[in-house]
Amino acid sequence: MDKFLAGLPRKRKAEDEASPNVLPKQLPSKAKKRKYDDTYLVFGFTCTTVGNEERPQCVVCLKVLACDSLKPNKLRRHLETKHPEHKDKPVEFFRQKLVNCRAQQSLFTKAASMPASAQLASYKVAYRVAQCKKPHTIAEELILPCALDMVSTMLDDTAARKLRAIPLSNNTIGRRIYDMSKDIEEQLHEKVRDSSFSLQMDEATDSNKDCLLITYVRFIDGDDMREELLFCKQVTGRATAEELFKIIDSYLKEASLKWEDCVGICTDGAQTMAGERGGLQALIKRVSPNAQWTHCMIHREALASKQLSPELNDVMTDVIATVNYIKTRPVKARIFSALCEEMGSDHTAVLLHSESRWLSRGKVLSRVFELQDEIRIFLEEEGNDLVHKFYCNHFLMKLAYLSDMFLKLNKVNLQMQGTNTHLPHLVDTITSFIRKLETWLQRVKDGNVDSFENLKAFIEVNKLQNTVIPCMKAHISALQKHFQKYFLMQDPKEYDWIRDPFSATPPADFSTSEEEQFIDVTSDSTMRLQFQSKTLAAFWIGVDKDYPLLGKRALAILLPFATSYLCEIGFSAVASIKTKYRSKLDIENELRVAISKLQPRFEKICSMKQAHTSH
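Given the sequence above, the corresponding structure tokens read:
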């Protein structure tokens, strides 16, 4: 059997070779490829290369056909079936279509080939624009031309041309700011979720009559505390406590933040915010019972110093009337300025008074007192009845006293402003001022006015007898009562164990475990060295890691906000960003990028975006 199987193929092969009817084996022939002809443009087709093959492309719909469709009859059939309205058009029509097609292809090629470095540069320029609170158009209208001028002058035109690839149009900058804002917000949420936090909130109306609710958050980030803008939302309806709570609650839920982690809230004293039954304070305490509410200490200081006796209030009224007479009339303001320059004055203008500004009274009164001679001459030339006030020494002595007192109040106000302020520090400032009031009152009763520099100098220069002592005593006594009303007297040593644990004794309400941990901390020489080199918050965060009972109690006092200063800073930034020319701006994204201390992750943002030109 093997013999027959092995020999059969050889026999058949020999027979096949000998047979005259069998054709020799042929190799497969090459497929014939057609070439594009320029006359095919009559049918509305041009040529494009896909791989290594020429294929027909319709200049009307830009569709690319198969290679075997490169035949006149197939091209004519496509034109008549797909574009029957163009079948009788002349070749010039299709030639214009071809020009448009190539221009569009060039644009796509340019966009696809834009370097990634140009996209990164675009984000960094947008970040600078947002930080400076400038309109988006400044990038394309000012920054790019200036950069081109500088590079072409310092280097060469070739290097300058590379900058033109950076997309900096108005819409592009807006998208960049939006991307960076969302990235910063994402970073913030990740940090706050792992920590206890406190909130500071306030609402106000911007220049476009939109009601905005600004909320800041303070949280523990690593080895220190950080303060950041949480959100800035527009209040569409009435700014009631329920509406404000709804906005805050919905945002915290979307950000996956828990009310249980909120340890404090700080607002002003408005009924909507501070109401114990129906205010925002009450609504938040229902969902976060451990949250401690704080009435902004700067607001309390402004309220305590606001009340004036009728006698001093008349002086304030006359000063404001004088300032308004000069300042609100452009011609008179220019004449007064020229008069001040002729007399060699340090200032050439008075300041307008504003009840909503914390430092306004002190600055207005001081400026009027410094320019009293210039104002008296000006009012006399104008024939204004207020000139008699500036000839009255009794009036000028009360003006001098008010300028001195409100400068001292402004100093207290400034000491409480700023970031990273904590309750123990501000309590010290208020306690110090209340003690000074007691000293000043006792000295005034004895006829000593050395603490009031303007008043003392005025009396000595004019050799007058002090006739305003009764008025001063009444005002200082009233200030004492108002400050004690708005700042309930506390034991000055209550927070000593936080401010300086190595020199203080533990409070009486410490538990046994807390007192033992306090002894351990104050006996540790390493802790003593850290206390001298770290901030107060950073020190107690470090203590919390090793001594959680003591650290948790200290952080419960340091973490809550003591003032709403950050909200006021936020509204100032809103006024700079949202002008009448940018009234429709999405203020939250702009504000977040402008004032946040967190840096956008530029590389991560660019890795998720495709580089393209401005559009």
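The CA atoms of residues 305 and 479 lie 6 Å apart. Try to locate this feature in the token string yourself.
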